[in-house]
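> call design_seq(struct)
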């Protein structure tokens, strides 16, 4: 599938048109950003690591019956995806307290959240991705109520699949963010899944293995992503 004109460049990925109107190429760059794009750095090999990590996870989600934009990995840094009409809302599920939940409620980090929480944020860097709710989504028309209900259902279904996948590798899935879009009338997962968009802790030591290493300046960012991938059985040389 030939890459054509660039359609969009995000903070870490660029999206290209192809000869097929329904299909796009998602190119993973080495750029790493945090704090709504205020901290940006190029990390060597990141594009390749996240592309392969994402392809592995997407294949597990598709096998579990979750509709995904992912079609196939094309090479080290590109994957083929379906063109979705994106819903500008971020869905976050948390199994353990961390990040903005800890700051918002002044609670301890690492508390088990039972049942897991579900939060919505508006995808808007300029506004710092403000927290929203289902009523806002309906009022401002960001998605139909049925579409939002489906996105929520799929976000929790992803939790069931991935919590176990990571735990089997001795890793806790602390929380994650997902975005959805509509493809031919169906709500479809339209996001990457990599250590950039979730929190992963070693189950024994609770060492952080995700983008918090970058946010908090802990070092060994890509080495940690790769170590997680290797524990899951991903071959980054393939
Ligand atoms: O910052 P916060 O604690 O709300 O993030 C919850 C989860 O969502 C984390 O795993 C974080 O990496 C992810 N997230 C993201 N992109 C954002 C906001 C949060 O991937 N814009």
């Amino acid at each position: 599938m030939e890459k054509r004109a660039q359609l969009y460049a995000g903070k870490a990925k660029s999206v290209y048109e192809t000869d097929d109107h329904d299909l796009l190429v998602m190119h993973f760059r080495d750029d790493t950003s945090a704090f709504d794009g205020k901290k940006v750095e190029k990390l060597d090999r990141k594009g390749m690591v996240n592309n392969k990590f994402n392809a592995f996870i997407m294949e597990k989600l598709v096998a579990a019956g979750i509709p995904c934009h992912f079609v196939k990995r094309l090479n080290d840094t590109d994957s083929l995806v379906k063109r979705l009409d994106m819903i500008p809302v971020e869905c976050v599920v948390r199994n353990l307290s961390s990040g903005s939940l800890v700051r918002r409620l002044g609670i301890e980090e690492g508390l088990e959240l039972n049942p897991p929480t579900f939060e919505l944020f508006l995808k808007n860097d300029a506004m710092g991705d403000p927290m929203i709710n289902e009523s806002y989504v309906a009022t401002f028309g960001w998605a139909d109520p049925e579409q939002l209900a489906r996105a929520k259902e799929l976000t929790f279904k992803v939790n069931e699949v991935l919590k176990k996948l990571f735990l089997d590798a001795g890793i806790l899935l602390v929380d994650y963010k997902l975005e959805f879009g509509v493809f031919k009338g169906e709500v479809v997962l339209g996001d990457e899944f990599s250590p950039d968009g979730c929190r992963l802790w070693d189950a024994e030591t609770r060492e952080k293995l995700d983008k918090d290493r970058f946010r908090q300046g802990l070092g060994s960012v890509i080495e940690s992503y790769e170590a997680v991938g290797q524990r899951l059985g991903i071959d980054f040389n393939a």
